[in-house]
TrEMBL record:
This is Serine aminopeptidase S33 domain-containing protein. Transmembrane segments: none annotated. It comes from Stylosanthes scabra. The lineage of its organism: Eukaryota, Viridiplantae, Streptophyta, Embryophyta, Tracheophyta. Residues 156-177 are annotated as: Disordered.
Amino acid sequence: MVNLAAAIEKDGISAFRFDFAGNGESEGSFQYGNYYREVEDLHAVIQHFREQKFVITAIVGHSKGNIMYRVTEESLMDRLSTITHLACLSIPQDCRVLTVHGSKDETVPSEDALDFDKFITNHELHIVEGADHEFTHHQDELTSIVLKFIKPHNDKDTDKSKGTQHGRVDKPIRSRF
């Protein structure tokens, strides 16, 4: 994700990278599942940038990766109570979704991405042949796919941003590396 954030910024699009609570460099302890806390984290980040008058044109995410953790009853119930099909159907139809998945991903099977593709209305799916979970030897291909998805809509949103309720984007968001 660091390489992707750098490439997005190099292409003239402001980027901000963060870790959910308990993941990566963030504070807190990792918990299996806990999607509701992650939704709250993401909402807080979006709200912060909207209050600062930034227009958000894309949100890019990545798996938690290969993390060893202790499953608690609470975290297991959170995970089991998440119905992926219903979550996919709750995505607004005007929200474009891109999934890029590696065919050699041993952490999350590519069949999961194919399942998402069945349920998300405005979905674009790319299976990168030979890529693992981290896109170790496919960073350039990942970057190219994501930029092609973001770029046309970022240009259109930037032009519109001068008159939106969120104001003009006068200051760039600097990525945290």
